[in-house]
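Hi V.,

Quick status before I head out on leave. The structure for the redesign project is tokenized and pasted below; the design run finished overnight.
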């Protein structure tokens, strides 16, 4: 059963220098208990997509087309009041990139965890605080964290607080936007183990957004690879990592060091396109080693290769 259905979603930023097509005609779904990894370079539209699913796209951006259906409810046309009461944080929540900036510096951790419980549910302060204690323990923190302010915590502790905040109302779907950014590798491993624990114990649906494909390989059931505002390849983790089809996905995987491989590391030449004026046809064509004339003229359709493996490339 699909928990989230996204159809032909378009999110544009209307700037003084032109319209930036950050997310352009994106479709996918997430089932209950599934972890979907969304990968791509910086500027590919991953974070904008995450904000769009929460209806939190910052100005001058806005959703200009498509539908976002969460648990059978189309939230693209829902009024803000209903969205806040019934969907946001209760059904779908988000772990924002950069925990230091996401936490309020003038409130204690306890106040910030208790507030959404009191706002969304008819419970008293004592019960809300007890639930906050339970949640910080779940993410591996001591109860005394609730009396501290964000500046008193390490980067890893702040990230755990953000995870606790996203889970505090037991939502069906959590969006994790680059949750290991700026953390050292030891803390990064601890955070990844925490996500695995949450997935296993709560059968939690997660959208895991990152530029690091090696992290996605650890946890994701399905993978969507984004480039220049579009999903260029989608499939199970086995399909995408073992038999990548799109030249962009192949390039990303070739740039990851492997302990037991003698294959030389390579990189994708060039830079991502300006989304105010993207290339005609396939948006990857200026950087693609297999580019053909048709790639420069027409946008490739989504091709189903079987086994839920989809690719947008004229090679197929």
């Amino acid at each position: 059963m699909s928990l989230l259905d996204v159809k032909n979603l378009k999110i544009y930023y209307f700037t003084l220098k032109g319209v930036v097509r950050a997310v352009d005609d994106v479709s996918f779904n997430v089932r209950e208990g599934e972890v979907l990894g969304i990968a791509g370079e910086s500027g590919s539209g991953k974070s904008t997509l995450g904000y769009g699913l929460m209806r939190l796209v910052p100005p001058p951006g806005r959703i200009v087309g498509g539908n976002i259906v969460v648990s059978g409810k189309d939230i693209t046309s829902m009024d803000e009041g209903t969205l806040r009461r019934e969907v946001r944080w209760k059904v779908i929540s988000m772990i924002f990139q950069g925990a230091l900036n996401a936490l309020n510096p003038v409130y204690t951790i306890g106040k910030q965890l208790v507030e959404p419980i009191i706002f969304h549910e008819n419970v008293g302060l004592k019960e809300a605080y007890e639930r906050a204690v339970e949640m910080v323990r779940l993410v591996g923190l001591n109860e005394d964290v609730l009396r501290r302010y964000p500046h008193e915590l390490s980067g890893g502790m702040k990230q755990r607080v953000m995870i606790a905040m996203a889970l505090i109302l037991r939502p069906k779907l959590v969006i994790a936007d680059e949750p290991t950014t700026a953390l050292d590798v030891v803390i990064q491993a601890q955070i990844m183990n925490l996500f695995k624990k949450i997935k296993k114990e709560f059968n939690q649906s997660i959208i895991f957004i990152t530029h690091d494909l090696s992290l996605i390989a650890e946890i994701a059931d399905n993978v969507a690879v984004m480039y220049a505002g579009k999903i260029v390849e989608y499939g199970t983790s086995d399909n995408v990592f073992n038999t990548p089809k799109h030249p962009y996905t192949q390039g990303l995987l070739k740039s990851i060091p492997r302990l037991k491989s003698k294959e030389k590391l390579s990189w994708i030449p060039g830079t991502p396109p300006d989304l105010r004026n993207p290339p005609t046809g396939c948006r990857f064509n200026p950087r693609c080693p297999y580019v053909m004339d048709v790639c420069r003229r027409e946008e490739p359709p989504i091709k189903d290769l079987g086994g839920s493996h989809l690719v947008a490339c004229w090679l197929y």
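Above is the designed sequence. The first strand starts at residue 2 and ends at 15.

G. will cover questions while I'm gone.

Best,
W.
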